[in-house]
UniProtKB/TrEMBL annotation, chain A:
Residues 29-50, 97-120 are annotated as: Disordered. Residues 30-45 have a biased composition (Basic residues). Residues 97-110 have a biased composition (Low complexity). It comes from Xylaria hypoxylon. PANTHER family: 54S RIBOSOMAL PROTEIN L20, MITOCHONDRIAL, LARGE RIBOSOMAL SUBUNIT PROTEIN ML58. Pfam families: MRP-L20. GO terms for molecular function: structural constituent of ribosome. This is Uncharacterized protein. One of its GO terms (cellular component) is mitochondrial large ribosomal subunit.
From TrEMBL, chain B:
Belongs to the ribonuclease III family. Mitochondrion-specific ribosomal protein mL44 subfamily. Keywords: Mitochondrion, Ribonucleoprotein, Ribosomal protein, RNA-binding. It is found in: Mitochondrion. The keyword Membrane does not apply. One of its GO terms (cellular component) is mitochondrion. Residues 54-248 form the RNase III domain. One of its GO terms (molecular function) is double-stranded RNA binding. SUPFAM superfamilies: dsRNA-binding domain-like (SSF54768), RNase III domain-like (SSF69065). This is Large ribosomal subunit protein mL44. InterPro entries: dsRBD_dom (IPR014720), Ribosomal_mL44_DSRM_fung (IPR044443), Ribosomal_mL44_DSRM_metazoa (IPR044444), RNase_III_dom (IPR000999), RNase_III_sf (IPR036389).
TrEMBL record, chain C:
One of its GO terms (molecular function) is structural constituent of ribosome. It holds the Pfam family L51_S25_CI-B8. Its main location: mitochondrion. It comes from Xylaria hypoxylon. Signal peptide: none annotated. InterPro entries: Ribosomal_mL43, Ribosomal_mL43/mS25/NADH_DH, Thioredoxin-like_sf. This is Large ribosomal subunit protein mL43. GO terms for biological process: mitochondrial translation. It is found in: Mitochondrion. Belongs to the mitochondrion-specific ribosomal protein mL43 family. Residues 32-105 form the Ribosomal protein/NADH dehydrogenase domain. GO terms for cellular component: mitochondrial large ribosomal subunit. The keyword Ribonucleoprotein applies.
Length: 211, 377, 137
């Protein structure tokens, strides 16, 4: 999958040189699927071969580069996961050079797609001190309703997960929360209950890689 | 089949058999003394020379003529049909099971050195476990006898569903806490499974009280849940054991390769992850890669009812895995899963097996890649 | 212990690794008196023993069926059987039929539309609209 991006400029260069001639008629009717007769339809749907498969003007042998338009197989180990002893590592020179030059080159950073969420690139702050954790626990123990996890996270500028790691609510509070949730669930109609059940099933399938 | 045909066939087969081979016939004295009073529990070994079914089975499996028909007939007798250890297949099956487990595990470990232990156990079971062996035996065209007995053709597989048999799990220890494990569902770690349990990571049930059928050797006898499956699986193991005894280890290895390891099992479908994101982060930290970042490769219909997001997991500038999903979270999780599978299913290709060096003119062993271990164990 | 394993069983394909002849038994029925079995009787006398020794994987059972037409019945590993009535045929025709039964897989005869059927994953993967650069048409 990495090679594709790396080789793309090379292959596009090859396309430019091969200069396939296409009939202008073909382009104009491309949106239509059929003609009035079979032979015309067949003629219209006759697509010229992929430029990579054509013999270049010079008539020399060339490498056909036609990557599959499909998601990569998991049996195709990414370059980074190959162990040092693997011969495929030495064979893939482009990747080897790129990994040895490191991430300092500006060329790579521009080519990277955007992060899916802003939190992806967030740096970890490690800003909460030991005393603050103690304070957090006291607050949570004193009044778990007003000092909810979200509130504490806002106050100490950390993630809710970190608050949950630090503090443990009292069993009464947990019981109350559970009862409140069950009351909400009891109000759900059949459609919503079914939708929630199916969401759970989808989640099971997702973790099996079957979705 | 008319009698003249039968005679002709058995002569053709009988002439190939080395009569001096050690086979159950020399130990048939207890059987013969028995037969004066009551019928035998399984057919007499001498009758196997005249069985057309048995000769056909041997030819179907392309077994060497070095394996006497009597031994093949013995491989078809389950301990539940004949409790006498010299006339049932328990001993042959034990040899066969250990060979099968050795060759399967060595093949899997050298081919996929990074498989986690749990997946390795499941793969072992998929290739050499009871369900797979049962299917193999059925593909051999072996029919089961309605009930075992002396008068049955020796070419039928003989077992009885209501009598105790032998389970092939002696490579392991019955844990001291076996009872509590089943009762309270105690947790078993992977390392303890490697040490204590059977080759498929299942606990070995506690030794039940001695059943009176057991003779001196077959101690751990019990009623198995599916006798038919167990009997078919034991047949495959016993045939492998017989090949090893009469034709040597190389032939047994070839047989295992062609009948067991040539089957198709998609290892990428065996994984069931719990925390793929955390596991991938830990992996990158362990291997000194940059922390993984989910990046959006393409998307369509974000505000529609059926959006699709294609998310790739990047470590630095290298993409580790990618997947499409209906939400950003789902796509990220399945991309992480794909990246982890790509890590675990790394294969160094067709490197040699340790057992290749057992052949006479073998090249010296070149060490293969060994992984340092699981990410979160 | 963050990964659990799912249990799957390996799938075998006959001919990959080892080939097993799918015909496991051939019943040969004949009649001593009827004229329709004349060819069958000569097949049994002259050709069956050679055919049987050439195909040791198959168990042969020859049995008389008085006052009935001669018949060949092939039994297969998948549990099915195929029978061919060979009345009034000569021994060479019967040999052809026996070979047909031997070579059959025992499955029902189906129309094969695809030139290749495989359980292996495609080398180029399943086409996805989100991958590849496409081709301008």
């Amino acid at each position: 999958m990495e090679t594709r991006q790396a080789l793309r400029p090379l292959s596009s260069l090859a396309h430019a040189t091969s200069s396939v001639t296409r009939t202008p008629v073909f382009r104009s009717v491309a949106s239509r699927r059929h003609q009035s007769t079979t032979s015309r339809t067949k003629k219209m749907l006759k697509i010229p071969p992929h430029p990579d498969f054509l013999i270049p003007r010079s008539g020399q042998n060339h490498i056909i580069y036609n990557p599959p338009p499909s998601a990569p197989s998991v049996f195709h180990t990414p370059f980074k996961f190959l162990p040092k002893s693997d011969p495929r590592r030495q064979a893939n020179l482009i990747q080897l050079l790129r990994s040895s030059s490191g991430s300092h080159t500006s060329r790579g950073s521009t080519a990277l797609p955007p992060p899916s969420r802003t939190v992806e690139t967030r740096q970890k702050k490690y800003n909460v001190t030991r005393e603050q954790v103690e304070e957090m626990r006291q607050l949570r123990a004193s009044n778990p309703v007003t000092w909810s996890v979200i509130k504490l996270a806002e106050k100490f500028d950390c993630s809710p997960l970190f608050v949950m790691i630090c503090c443990k609510a009292s069993p009464e509070h947990k019981d109350n929360e559970r009862q409140r949730l069950e009351a909400i669930k009891a109000r759900w109609g059949t459609i919503r209950t079914k939708a929630r059940d199916e969401r759970k099933k989808r989640k099971v399938l997702l973790f099996r890689g079957a979705l | 089949m008319p009698e003249w045909m039968r005679g002709a066939r058995s002569n053709a087969n009988g002439s190939l058999i080395d009569q001096s081979h050690e086979s159950p016939e020399e130990s048939s004295t207890p059987h013969q003394t028995d037969s004066s009073q009551r019928s035998l529990p399984s057919p007499h070994p001498d009758r196997s020379l005249r069985s057309a079914k048995l000769a056909a089975l041997r030819a179907r499996l392309s077994l060497s003529s070095k394996i006497p028909l009597q031994v093949l007939a013995r491989a078809l007798v389950d301990p539940s049909a004949d409790a006498h250890p010299r006339f049932n297949n328990a001993n042959l099956a034990f040899v066969g099971a250990s060979l099968l487990q050795y060759h399967t595990s060595e093949w899997l470990v050298t081919r996929y050195p990074r498989l986690p232990m749990g997946i390795l156990f499941a793969a072992m079971k998929g290739y050499a476990g009871e369900p797979a062996l049962d299917r193999i035996a059925r593909a051999w065209g072996v029919e089961a006898a309605a009930a075992p007995g002396e008068e049955v053709d020796p070419g039928y597989l003989q077992f009885s569903p209501d009598k105790p048999t032998v389970m092939m799990h002696k490579w392991g220890y019955a844990r001291a806490e076996a009872k509590e494990l089943t009762k309270y569902k105690w947790r078993r770690g992977m390392s303890s499974r490697v040490v204590f349990d059977d080759p498929f990571g299942k606990t070995i049930p506690e030794q039940t009280e001695e059943l009176e059928v057991s003779d001196a050797r077959n101690i751990r006898e019990m009623i198995v849940p599916d006798t038919e499956k167990n009997a078919h699986a034991n047949l495959v193991r016993a045939v492998i054991g017989a090949i090893y005894l009469h034709c040597g280890s190389e032939t047994a290895k070839t047989f295992i390769k062609s009948y067991v390891l040539s089957r198709e099992l998609d290892l990428s479908n065996l994984f069931n992850f719990k925390l793929p994101q955390r596991e991938l982060t830990r992996l990158c930290a362990r291997e000194n890669f940059e922390p993984p970042v989910a990046r959006l490769l393409s998307e369509t219909g974000r505000l529609s009812r059926t959006p699709v997001f294609v998310v790739g997991i990047y470590s630095g500038h290298d993409m580790l895995g990618e997947a499409a999903g209906a939400s950003l979270d789902a796509a990220k999780i399945s991309a992480c899963i794909n990246a982890l599978k790509a890590w675990y299913l790394y294969s160094p290709g067709d490197v040699g097996l340790p057992s290749d060096t057992l052949a006479e003119d073998a090249t010296p062993w070149r060490p293969v890649y060994v992984d340092i271990g699981e990410i979160i164990s | 212990m963050t990964i659990r394993a799912l249990e799957k069983v390996s799938v075998g394909q006959n001919g990959i690794g080892a080939f097993i002849l799918q015909c496991r038994k051939l019943d040969v029925h004949y009649c001593n008196q009827s004229g329709s079995s004349r060819g069958m009787n000569s097949f049994i006398k002259s050709q069956l023993s050679k055919f049987a020794s050439l195909n040791p994987q198959i168990e042969f059972a020859v049995s008389p069926r008085p006052r009935k037409h001669p018949v060949l019945i092939g039994h297969y590993i998948n549990g099915k059987h195929k029978s061919i009535c060979v009345k009034n045929m000569d021994s060479l025709q019967i040999l052809k039929k026996a070979e047909l039964l031997r070579d059959a897989s025992g499955d029902k005869i189906k129309r094969v539309n695809k030139p290749i059927t495989s359980i292996n994953e495609s080398v180029r993967g399943v086409w996805s609209p989100y991958h590849g650069n496409g081709m301008a048409v």
